[in-house]
Amino acid sequence: MKISDIIASANSNLFRNKTRTFLTILAVFIGSFTIILNSAINTGVNSYIDKQLEAAGGEGYLEIMTNEAVDIMSSMMSSSSEVKEYREASGNDQKSTYITDEQIEKARQIPGLESIDLIYSANPEYIKAKDSDKKFAVTNLNLMPRGNVNLDTTAGRKPDANTDKLEVALTEAYVNALGFSSDEDAIGKIVTFAVPNTVECYMVSKHSDCLKMVDAEVVGVQAPSIMAMGGMRANLALNQKIYDLATDGMPEEAKRHAFQATAQVDPEKIDEIKEKLKEVGLAAMTIDDEVGMIKVFFDAILVVFSIFGGIALLAASIGIINTLFMSVQERTREIGLMKAMGMSNGKIFFSFSCEAILLGFWGSVVGVVFSMIIGTIGDKIAHESFLKDFPTFELVKFDPINMLVIVLIIMFIAFLAGTLPARRAAKKDPIDALRYE
Predict the structure, then answer these.
(1) pLDDT digits (tens, 9 = 90+) for 217-262
(2) 172 in helix, strand or coil?
(3) I need a surface site. Which of 111, 119, 160, 301 has the fewest CB within 10 A?
(4) Domain locations in the chain?
């Protein structure tokens, strides 16, 4: 009996009991559908993040904070419920999150570190168009650092870090709110930021009396992306002007508190420089490190769903074992006849193994088809709702290689599940089998 005939016969034998076979394939389908769809979402998300990283550039760019500041941020983001004993802070501990002049001087001596800028940050209270009275809260105004960090724009360019002019790149939401007719219309327009002065706001009764105004030119509008989720972008000159207005009247020592710095370094020496910075109490992250945390978050969620898919496949494996054991039991006389006609134990084992593999094959193929249909529909709905501002974001992206690998793995799992019943069928004594009623 040819191998092709054995495979065809195995496929035909599967459907002798259609209900049992259908339920087993359904169990395989549920597991494969979950895993394949998760894989497609993971591919889509990571592909989009990789494109964003590629567009952002930033080779040789580092964001720097003190180790203490990173520890505080980590503990704030942690879900740990551990209660720690109170420890009275010393004068040095209170300032441990600030980057010191001594640390900056040591950092500048590190080979490969080309430049470093301390970031003194203060957030404006509101923004308005120059010729309008409508005011809009500023949730985030971040720095556009020096160097080769790119900013994807729908109009204009990124703010210039090397000019004394005050420049800002808006997000699309602010373009509409401020009354500009289009992204292109916003370019070259003047916007006004209101900055609360820390000292005066403690002394005045009317809050508006302590607000300082600063004008900036709109030079760009950011395209929707994960890189634009941080808000508007100011150049170094505007960032410094806002900080100066906010801290005017404060002692000079109090003004020199920077939690963060940006640096340009030799891309070939990034890992070495990060280790050297650790030695002076500073932690450094690249753009890839920052966005990589988003990847980890999505991967963690998808792993959980994949585990559910794995549990479904485990249940399906038990179903395959049960289906084939029942098949062996029902076809005992048939197995005896095949052996009497000269069919070897190996071919009988192969025949039943084929049935198990085919159960995995049909279940996974149906899973591929349905996951592609559901994924395509889901992607379309997503882009009409919560992803409408991210037209290039493929939420679900099916990689043929990934799908093929998953199908082969499921078929292998099915083969392993069918090994025991197939072995039992191959070992049956032909005379006893022919006598079986």
Answers:
(1) 999 999 877 655 568 999 999 999 999 999 999 888 777 778 889 8
(2) helix
(3) 111
(4) 3-52+294-435, 58-285
